[in-house]
Amino acid sequence: MALPVLSSSGVKFRRVLAHFPQELSLAFAYGSGVFRQEGASPGHSENNMLDFVFAVDDSVTWHMMNLLKNKSHYSFLKVFGPKQISNIQSYGAGIYYNTLVPCNGRMIKYGVISTDTLIDDLLHWKTLYVAGRLQKPVKILTQNENGKLQAALVSNLKSAVTAAFLMLPESFSEEDLYMQIAGLSYSGDFRMIIGEDRSKVQNIVKPNVPYFQKLYSNILQDCPQVIDKSPEGQFTQLMALPRSLQQKITSLVDPPGKNRDVEEILLQVAHDPDCGLVVHQGRPKSIPLITFKKL
C-alpha cells in the first residue's frame, strides 16, 4: 500500500533542500510555517520559521558533507567533527537540530535523524518525537525506495488510529478522531483537558481537516468498522499497539514483583472501564531536545 502522505511541489521547499547533501532517505517540512493554524493572521505563516526533518542512512557521512557545505549552520560542536556530532545526535529523541539558519530569505531549523532510529520510533514509539510529527500532515519533499521505512511510516499511522480508537468514546466525530490523533504526542488528558493544550491541538486540526483526511483515508478504509468497546475488541486493539506503549501500560498496571506477561496484563486492561485513560497515561512523555547555539 502506498503511503498516503502529502507530496510537495512547492518551489520554496525545493530551493531549501538544494542547499543540503542529497543523500536523504526522507525529508519533510512541518509546522506552522507550512500548514495554516486557526487564529493565525493572513500571511502569518510566511514569517514563521520553516521546520524540516532529514532522515539519513549514514549520519557521520551526512554531517561530514553538510559541514563542507554549511559549516556556519553548526554550533561550536563543528570543531569536534562529524563523528562527535553524530554521537550527540544519538541521545534523547535521536535527532540533532541546527536552528536559526537563514536560508533563501527565511529562517529555518532542521533536524537530522538516522533512518534506523526513525524506523524504530515509527514502529515502537520509543520517544514518539518524530513519529508524532508524522501522525500529522507534513509536506514530504523527498523519499527513497527504502521498503522498511515505507512500511514503518504506514505502521505509525495505523498505530495512531488504533490508539485514538481506544481513547475515544463509542460515538465521536471525524474531527474528534483527528483531535485525538494530533494530541497523542502532547501532554494532558484529552477527555478532560482545557486551556492552552486543547486550543493548540484544535488550532492544528480545524484548518487542516482535508489534509488529515488525505493522510488517513487509506488507513480508515482498511478499518471501516465502528469502534468495538467490548473487552474482546479492546484486547485486539491493545495487542496491536506499538511495543513501547504496551510496555508502559504494563508498568502502570502490573505491581512490582508480579511479573505477569504482557498479554495477561493487556487482557486485564481490556476489561477495565478506564481502558482509554490507561492507554493515554502510557504514552511516551516528551523528551527535551539538547540544542546548541551557533557562535
From TrEMBL:
Its EC number is 2.7.7.41. GO terms for biological process: cardiolipin biosynthetic process; CDP-diacylglycerol biosynthetic process. It holds the Pfam family Tam41_Mmp37. Its main location: mitochondrion. InterPro entries: Tam41. The keyword Lipid biosynthesis applies. It is found in: Mitochondrion inner membrane. Catalyzes the conversion of phosphatidic acid (PA) to CDP-diacylglycerol (CDP-DAG), an essential intermediate in the synthesis of phosphatidylglycerol, cardiolipin and phosphatidylinositol. This is Phosphatidate cytidylyltransferase, mitochondrial. The lineage of its organism: Eukaryota, Metazoa, Chordata, Craniata, Vertebrata.
